[in-house]
Design a protein that fits this description.
Helices cover about 5% and strands about 40% of the residues. It is mainly β and about 140 residues long.
């Protein structure tokens, strides 16, 4: 039996199919500082072993609601222009959020939704990591300005 293939008819060359669902997670960030967090992906059979995320790009968008057309923050390991705001740790299984305060300070204090997709670089296969529900991001008003 063959495994999954991309729309181009190519199988993924990464461990993209082993990535877990992230929906239901939540983050809380202040709008007076950068957003620096890390997600640690582990093997589905051994939670002590990192899942190699080499060969995978990640893309996430922050919106007020799922149906909102406006994107308040667009993060990627492979941005079309500018600096990456998501950084892949490859074989360490770590995905770093490294979003400068210049982007975060533009966010009003409120709850946003975010989803994330993973893209296998070699095949173009796209996997949603939030199929059931989005990630919640609470932005609070920073005190120190």
């Amino acid at each position: 039996m063959a495994g999954p293939i991309s729309i181009q008819g190519k199988p993924p060359s990464s461990y993209i199919m082993l990535l877990p669902q992230l929906g239901g997670m939540s983050f809380s960030i202040a709008n007076n500082a950068g957003w620096y967090d890390v997600l640690f992906f582990t093997s589905p059979t051994d939670s002590e072993k990192p899942l190699d995320i080499s060969g995978i790009n990640f893309h996430a968008e922050l919106r007020l609601s799922v149906m909102d057309a406006q994107v308040f923050l667009d993060m990627s390991t492979a941005p079309a222009s500018g600096q990456s705001q998501l950084v892949s740790g490859g074989y360490t299984g770590q995905l770093f959020f490294s979003v400068d305060v210049s982007f975060i300070s533009k966010l009003s204090p409120q709850v946003y939704v975010m989803d994330m997709v993973a893209i296998d670089i070699s095949s173009g296969m796209v996997k949603s990591l939030c199929e059931i529900e989005p990630i919640q991001v609470m932005v609070i008003e920073g005190v120190t300005r």
